[in-house]
Design brief:
single chain, alpha+beta, four-stranded mixed sheet, two-stranded antiparallel sheet, 7 helices, 50% helix, elongated
């Protein structure tokens, strides 16, 4: 048997109940073209649930033996639009508890996923760090860690997050180290701020970068100090 829910109207102008004469009415039903308050219509024990939460609305409606649709007339659109439902208070409370349990379950799942992602991120960084130290054994440990963390930052699009970086492609790893040396150990950034075109600035600092990389590869030369001072 198809269910036919009562329709409750939120009136746009002041109305009084045709039976008990109380008013103005916040909500009413219309019987024989006359307004009837919810108490007289035996709907006064129901509580209002505003539209918007689909899961809560569905659960409250399914758990309520009696429920009604609440509508309001939209003059601009010349139509009635649903505002929510009237449902039994016990059904609403039970629906809220169920939805809260779902929200808590989703929160726990998000927390577990975050832990797994953090572990994966740490693994990516550690693997990249090990490869940096393999290719540049004389690179200071704290500096290698700084490069690995920077290059593998989630969402950065940097080399540690590219396919080449994850596969530990030698050129990609070297590019990450070279980029760090360019910004930290040479006056490259100062040149850019001074108006030197990027390609010219790179050409100027290229010998200094190669000196540092050579020292970190073989340890035969001392790397220069940081170039930002």
């Amino acid at each position: 048997m198809d269910l036919v829910a009562p329709v409750v109207v939120e009136p746009l102008r002041r109305r009084r109940c045709s039976e008990c004469l109380r008013g103005p009415l916040e909500r009413m039903i219309v019987e024989f073209n006359s307004p009837v308050c919810l108490d007289c219509a035996d709907l006064g024990h129901l509580v209002f649930l505003r539209r918007g939460d689909t899961a809560l609305t569905r659960r409250a409606r399914e758990g309520s033996a009696l429920w009604a649709v609440v509508v309001r007339h939209n003059r601009r659109r010349t139509r009635y639009e649903r505002q929510g439902l009237l449902v039994e208070e016990a059904a609403l409370a039970e629906a809220e508890s169920a939805c809260l349990a779902d929200a808590e379950a989703r929160a726990r799942r998000r927390a577990r996923d975050a832990v797994r992602r953090a572990a994966l991120d740490a693994e990516v960084t550690e693997v990249l760090l090990a490869e940096i130290m393999r290719l540049f054994p004389s690179c200071p440990a704290d500096r290698a860690t700084e490069i690995a963390v920077h290059a593998s930052a989630k969402g950065s699009g940097r080399v540690g997050r590219t396919a080449a970086g994850r596969s530990l492609d030698r050129g990609a790893v070297t590019a990450a180290v070279r980029a760090s040396v360019r910004h930290v150990d040479t006056p490259y950034d100062s040149l850019l701020m001074g108006g030197v075109p990027r390609h010219q600035a790179r050409t100027r600092v290229a010998p200094a970068i190669e000196t540092v990389l050579r020292a970190w590869r073989h340890g035969g030369e001392s790397a220069p100090g940081r170039g930002r001072g």
